[in-house]
Amino acid sequence: MRCVSTAALALLLLFSVVDVSPVIAAEPPFQVIVHPEVEGTQIRRAVLSSVFLKESPNWGDGSPIRPVDQSLRSPVRAMFSEYVLKEPTEGIHALWRRKINEGVSPPKVRSSDEEVIAFVEQTKGSIGYVSLSTPLPPTVKALVLVD
Protein backbone atom coordinates (compact mmCIF):
# COMPACT_ATOMS: atom_id res chain seq x y z
CA MET A 1 0.00 0.00 0.00
CA ARG A 2 2.82 2.38 0.91
CA CYS A 3 4.49 1.63 -2.46
CA VAL A 4 1.32 2.65 -4.37
CA SER A 5 1.01 5.88 -2.37
CA THR A 6 4.62 6.81 -3.06
CA ALA A 7 4.20 6.12 -6.79
CA ALA A 8 0.97 8.13 -6.90
CA LEU A 9 2.63 11.02 -5.09
CA ALA A 10 5.59 10.92 -7.49
CA LEU A 11 3.25 11.03 -10.53
CA LEU A 12 1.23 13.87 -9.01
CA LEU A 13 4.42 15.83 -8.37
CA LEU A 14 5.70 15.15 -11.88
CA PHE A 15 2.51 16.37 -13.56
CA SER A 16 2.25 19.43 -11.35
CA VAL A 17 5.76 20.54 -12.36
CA VAL A 18 5.68 19.60 -16.04
CA ASP A 19 2.89 20.93 -18.22
CA VAL A 20 2.00 18.06 -20.56
CA SER A 21 -0.69 19.94 -22.46
CA PRO A 22 0.04 20.51 -26.15
CA VAL A 23 1.52 23.85 -27.14
CA ILE A 24 -0.76 25.66 -29.55
CA ALA A 25 0.68 28.59 -31.49
CA ALA A 26 -1.61 31.58 -31.47
CA GLU A 27 -2.54 32.40 -35.04
CA PRO A 28 -3.31 35.97 -35.98
CA PRO A 29 -7.03 36.83 -36.07
CA PHE A 30 -6.65 38.30 -39.59
CA GLN A 31 -4.94 37.64 -42.94
CA VAL A 32 -2.05 39.75 -44.24
CA ILE A 33 -2.27 40.30 -47.99
CA VAL A 34 0.06 41.86 -50.53
CA HIS A 35 0.07 42.74 -54.20
CA PRO A 36 1.02 39.55 -56.10
CA GLU A 37 4.31 41.06 -57.34
CA VAL A 38 5.64 41.51 -53.80
CA GLU A 39 8.38 38.92 -53.23
CA GLY A 40 8.29 36.42 -50.39
CA THR A 41 5.73 34.33 -48.57
CA GLN A 42 6.10 35.49 -44.97
CA ILE A 43 6.63 38.63 -42.89
CA ARG A 44 7.90 39.12 -39.38
CA ARG A 45 5.57 40.81 -36.91
CA ALA A 46 8.19 43.50 -36.13
CA VAL A 47 8.59 44.27 -39.85
CA LEU A 48 4.82 44.44 -40.34
CA SER A 49 4.58 46.84 -37.41
CA SER A 50 7.29 49.10 -38.84
CA VAL A 51 5.55 49.04 -42.23
CA PHE A 52 2.22 50.20 -40.78
CA LEU A 53 3.93 52.83 -38.63
CA LYS A 54 5.69 54.04 -41.80
CA GLU A 55 9.13 53.36 -40.34
CA SER A 56 10.03 51.03 -43.23
CA PRO A 57 9.23 52.80 -46.51
CA ASN A 58 10.65 50.22 -48.96
CA TRP A 59 10.57 46.51 -49.68
CA GLY A 60 13.88 44.61 -49.84
CA ASP A 61 14.14 45.29 -53.57
CA GLY A 62 13.90 49.06 -52.97
CA SER A 63 10.33 49.48 -54.24
CA PRO A 64 7.96 51.56 -52.10
CA ILE A 65 5.67 49.88 -49.57
CA ARG A 66 2.07 51.08 -49.73
CA PRO A 67 0.23 49.98 -46.57
CA VAL A 68 -3.56 50.18 -46.36
CA ASP A 69 -5.42 50.21 -43.04
CA GLN A 70 -9.03 49.43 -42.22
CA SER A 71 -11.40 52.04 -40.81
CA LEU A 72 -10.99 53.10 -37.17
CA ARG A 73 -14.34 51.44 -36.41
CA SER A 74 -13.37 48.13 -37.98
CA PRO A 75 -13.11 45.13 -35.61
CA VAL A 76 -10.32 43.68 -37.78
CA ARG A 77 -8.32 46.90 -37.36
CA ALA A 78 -8.71 46.64 -33.59
CA MET A 79 -7.38 43.06 -33.71
CA PHE A 80 -4.52 44.08 -36.02
CA SER A 81 -3.54 47.01 -33.79
CA GLU A 82 -3.44 44.87 -30.66
CA TYR A 83 -1.75 41.86 -32.29
CA VAL A 84 0.85 43.61 -34.48
CA LEU A 85 1.28 47.17 -33.19
CA LYS A 86 0.80 46.18 -29.51
CA GLU A 87 -1.49 49.18 -28.95
CA PRO A 88 -5.24 49.69 -29.00
CA THR A 89 -6.64 51.48 -32.05
CA GLU A 90 -7.09 54.69 -30.05
CA GLY A 91 -3.40 54.70 -29.14
CA ILE A 92 -2.36 54.25 -32.75
CA HIS A 93 -4.76 57.01 -33.81
CA ALA A 94 -3.14 59.37 -31.26
CA LEU A 95 0.31 58.36 -32.54
CA TRP A 96 -0.74 59.24 -36.09
CA ARG A 97 -2.00 62.67 -35.00
CA ARG A 98 1.53 63.37 -33.71
CA LYS A 99 3.23 61.91 -36.80
CA ILE A 100 1.02 63.98 -39.12
CA ASN A 101 2.26 67.11 -37.31
CA GLU A 102 5.80 65.91 -38.14
CA GLY A 103 4.89 65.59 -41.83
CA VAL A 104 4.42 61.80 -41.98
CA SER A 105 1.27 60.60 -43.74
CA PRO A 106 -0.59 57.60 -42.28
CA PRO A 107 -1.43 54.56 -44.39
CA LYS A 108 -4.39 54.82 -46.76
CA VAL A 109 -7.66 53.73 -45.17
CA ARG A 110 -10.40 51.60 -46.69
CA SER A 111 -13.72 50.84 -45.05
CA SER A 112 -14.10 47.11 -45.72
CA ASP A 113 -12.23 43.90 -46.47
CA GLU A 114 -13.44 44.11 -50.08
CA GLU A 115 -12.05 47.64 -50.46
CA VAL A 116 -8.71 46.60 -48.96
CA ILE A 117 -8.53 43.67 -51.39
CA ALA A 118 -9.34 45.99 -54.33
CA PHE A 119 -6.61 48.44 -53.23
CA VAL A 120 -4.02 45.66 -52.87
CA GLU A 121 -4.97 44.15 -56.24
CA GLN A 122 -4.55 47.48 -58.03
CA THR A 123 -1.57 49.00 -56.17
CA LYS A 124 1.97 47.71 -56.71
CA GLY A 125 3.90 47.30 -53.46
CA SER A 126 0.75 47.36 -51.35
CA ILE A 127 0.07 45.46 -48.14
CA GLY A 128 -3.08 45.21 -46.07
CA TYR A 129 -5.06 42.92 -43.81
CA VAL A 130 -8.54 41.43 -43.89
CA SER A 131 -10.59 39.21 -41.60
CA LEU A 132 -9.85 35.49 -41.47
CA SER A 133 -13.25 34.62 -42.91
CA THR A 134 -12.79 36.71 -46.06
CA PRO A 135 -12.11 34.56 -49.13
CA LEU A 136 -9.07 35.78 -51.03
CA PRO A 137 -9.09 36.05 -54.81
CA PRO A 138 -6.07 34.80 -56.77
CA THR A 139 -5.24 38.44 -57.55
CA VAL A 140 -3.71 38.98 -54.08
CA LYS A 141 -1.17 36.98 -52.11
CA ALA A 142 -1.46 36.02 -48.43
CA LEU A 143 1.66 36.24 -46.27
CA VAL A 144 2.37 34.09 -43.25
CA LEU A 145 2.99 36.20 -40.16
CA VAL A 146 5.96 35.00 -38.09
CA ASP A 147 7.49 36.24 -34.84
Can you tell me about this structure?
The longest helix is centred in the first third of the chain and has 16 residues, at 2-17. It contains 5 helices and 6 strands. It is 39% helix and 19% strand. The protein is globular, with a radius of gyration of 21 Å. The chain has helices spanning 2-17, 45-52, 75-85, 89-101, 113-122; strands at residues 30-34, 42-44, 66-70, 108-110, 126-131, 141-146. It is of the alpha/beta class. The protein has one domain (26-146): 3-Layer(aba) Sandwich (D-Maltodextrin-Binding Protein, domain 2).
Q: How would you concisely characterize the structure shown here?
A:
The chain is an alpha/beta fold. It has 5 helices and 6 strands; from the N terminus they run H-E-E-H-E-H-H-E-H-E-E. The protein has a 6-stranded mixed sheet with strand order 2-6-1-5-3-4, sandwiched between helices.
* Rg result: 21 Å
Q: Please give the alpha-carbon distance between the first and last residues.
A: 51 Å
Highest CATH level, the class: Alpha Beta
Low-confidence stretches: 1-25
What's the overall average pLDDT, rounded? 86
Shape: globular
Number of domains: 1
Would you report the number of β strands?
6
Q: How much of the sequence is in beta strands?
A: 15-25%
Strand order, sheet with most strands: 2-6-1-5-3-4
In the CATH classification, which architecture applies? 3-Layer(aba) Sandwich
CATH topology grouping: D-Maltodextrin-Binding Protein, domain 2
Report the helical percentage. 25-40%
Q: What's the CATH H-level homologous superfamily?
A: Periplasmic binding protein-like II
- Main sheet: strands, sense, barrel: 6 strands, mixed
SSE order, one letter for each helix or strand: HEEHEHHEHEE
Number of contiguous helices: 5
Supply the helix-strand structural class: alpha/beta
